[in-house]
Amino acid sequence: MEDRITLNVGGVKFQCRADTLRSLPGTKLSTLSAENDAYDAAVGEYYFDRNPTLFNYILDAYRYGRIHVTAESVCGLVLKEELEYWGIGEEYIADCCWAAFVAKEREIKMRNEVINFFDKIDNESAPKADQCISRWRLGAWNFLENPMSSMPAKLWAFFFLAAVITSVTLLVMFTHRSFRINLVVPKRNVTGETNPKMLLQLTTTPYPMLVNIDIACMVLFGVELLLRFILSPDKKKFVLSFYNIIDCLCVLSTLCLTIVEFTNPSYLTDDRLFGFVYFLSVLGVMRTIRMIKLARHFTGMKILLLALKASLREVLLLIMLIVLGMLFFSTLIYFAEFFQESHFVNIPIGFWWSIVTMTTVGYGDKHPSSGWGYLVGAICALSGMLSTGLPIPVIASNFNLYYNVARAITIDRKKGEKRKKLTN
């Protein structure tokens, strides 16, 4: 038959009708003629040096107007290149197979995203290409700032992390009676004082050994901060860094607190000075953020940060659902118990109750006391389970995906290092 066309693709012959190829105008096969460079007049066929296995998918587009593909049968990236060669658009991929078609592309995109994110964290403090910095200074800077730059830097990071954990532990211990000794004379008159926390501060003091360890930790933090500032290739960037601001506040607050306690032991009798000391003590809580600063260089924390970044929509959705639920149910419970005595004397009190109920914490300090109130509370609890339960699996799924990709990257890099050693 004259309208039958023979196509030789990579040594495998395919036959189809000419009107079938003309069904997709503008594609490579829709305009075949004897003048085409691929036409071999001696055998009466068109030859294309392409993959014959993939050509079956190309013919499906001409014959049926859609292409069915599975992730196990063919790589989506290879098929995409083949479609571009034949001039066929991706819209011919069947809807049921679209996820399989783009699976490999998404995997590559996620892989690049993980690599770029990891490199950004590891190299965020690295000097710019146009900055001139001596080798010893660069080595010292990487030793203090980048735990992944060398084994000594990693050991220093673990030691510094241990110092941070020690500092945080001491902060906790200082608030417990077991780690304090009684004062012979209270810091001020405690007559009529009923606050147990104030009584603890006024009548006891931490063990001197623990105080000395805490001061040693703060000296270490201060020296480390000063050295990093001196070695920093970009002073402005260093000063504006969030983590460095936290470090500076922690060191300065502890220094000021120590100076006040040693130079003015009666500071508790001065309300203004006591308020200042209290403020400095609150700033000391920020020393826990140092742990995040160091942990962000480790793979697990990087993956968690990346998963949260990728799940930003879900996190915002979770916050929005909780806020909307809080506004709705706090207003509803207020009017549900409007004509009787109850805990909900105003709507803002309902904010606390609705959040506690929606998150299924249920402290029980505020609760409804009528039939309508119980109904609102039940609906609030069920709504909270749905609104908080739906976005969480997405975040967990993203973490699992990024974890698997990061693990594959780590394995590939180790294999590459082994091949390099064997080659050398």
Automatic annotation (TrEMBL):
Keyword line: Ion channel, Ion transport, Membrane, Potassium, Potassium channel, Potassium transport, Transmembrane, Transmembrane helix, Transport, Voltage-gated channel
Keyword Transmembrane (UniProt): yes
Protein's recorded name: BTB domain-containing protein
GO molecular function annotation: delayed rectifier potassium channel activity
Species of provenance: Dimorphilus gyrociliatus
Lipid bilayer topology: Multi-pass membrane protein
Cellular compartments annotated: Membrane
Keyword Transmembrane helix on entry: yes
